[in-house]
Write a structure and sequence with these properties.
Layout lengths: L1 H15 L2 H18 L5 H11 L4 H15 L2 H6 L5 H25 L7 H23 L4 H23 L4 H4 L3 H9 L4 H28 L4
Helix pairs in contact: 1-6, 2-3, 2-6, 3-6, 3-8, 4-7, 4-8, 6-7, 7-8, 7-10, 7-11, 8-10, 10-11
Pfam families: FLQE3_permease (PF24686)
Keywords: Membrane, Transmembrane, Transmembrane helix
Protein name: ABC transporter permease
């Protein structure tokens, strides 16, 4: 119940700060870009736009939200309550996944290949992956500058393979990277769901083991 409550709370927070208005505008803009592209480039354009924005939304905005909650003393208050790190993480990543999936569906719907169940599930799992990366960067940052530096490193390591894969560059070497798997999902390859579940499981286990201590430390817990 706490997880659902925190998810709804985070969605209200994102609505208050204009995330839904922003992604409504961006989705319309991206749809227009896809529509004006030549027919042969519509699919690749849609995949690139979805991958570089809604699918990876968490790594861009997680730090801003977590650091804002730190500065407003919201996060320390949550930490000294019965709320666990798993509850806090769940609320954040699921609220971002909702925006990610809705925006991606809207954009891919207007591409020639359209949108399928495999695409939706893979994008949702990809959003969870990058949101968790954003949480790792946020909890290891004391300022926005530190977060931007750390998240940029994560973006280069984890996002660049996806961009290269979209353009069929070194694809056989990048096939199993998380970013390439997300692109495969947008191309409706069912195995992408299985691969993303593995990547998410590994990342969440690592995150929970090491970031739980960071989370508790913010609230002064021992």
């Amino acid at each position: 119940m706490r997880k659902l409550t925190l998810t709804i709370s985070d969605m209200k927070f994102q609505y208050k700060y204009g995330f839904y208005y922003l992604y409504t505008f961006l989705s319309v803009l991206y749809i227009c870009i896809v529509q004006i592209m030549a027919k042969d480039f519509k699919d690749i354009t849609a995949q690139l736009l979805v991958f570089t924005d809604p699918a990876t939304i968490g790594i861009f905005f997680m730090g801003a939200i977590v650091l804002l909650e730190k500065s407003q003393r919201i996060l320390p208050s949550l930490i000294v309550s019965p709320i666990k790190f798993s509850d806090y993480l769940f609320g954040k990543v699921m609220s971002f996944a909702f925006i990610s999936v809705i925006s991606a569906i809207a954009i891919l719907f207007f591409s020639p290949s359209g949108i399928g169940v495999v695409s939706i599930i893979t994008i949702a799992l990809g959003s969870l992956f990058f949101s968790v990366l954003g949480m790792i960067a946020a909890l290891n940052s004391r300022s926005m500058n530190e977060y931007l530096m750390l998240s940029t490193i994560f973006e280069i390591i984890f996002c660049l393979p996806g961009v290269l894969y979209i353009f069929n560059i070194a694809e056989k070497y990048l096939f199993f990277t998380p970013a390439a798997v997300i692109v495969q999902g947008m191309r409706n390859k069912p195995a992408s769901i299985f691969y993303m579940i593995i990547w998410n499981t590994l990342l969440i286990l690592i995150t929970y083991k090491y970031m739980n201590k960071k989370y508790r430390k913010i609230g002064g817990a021992r």
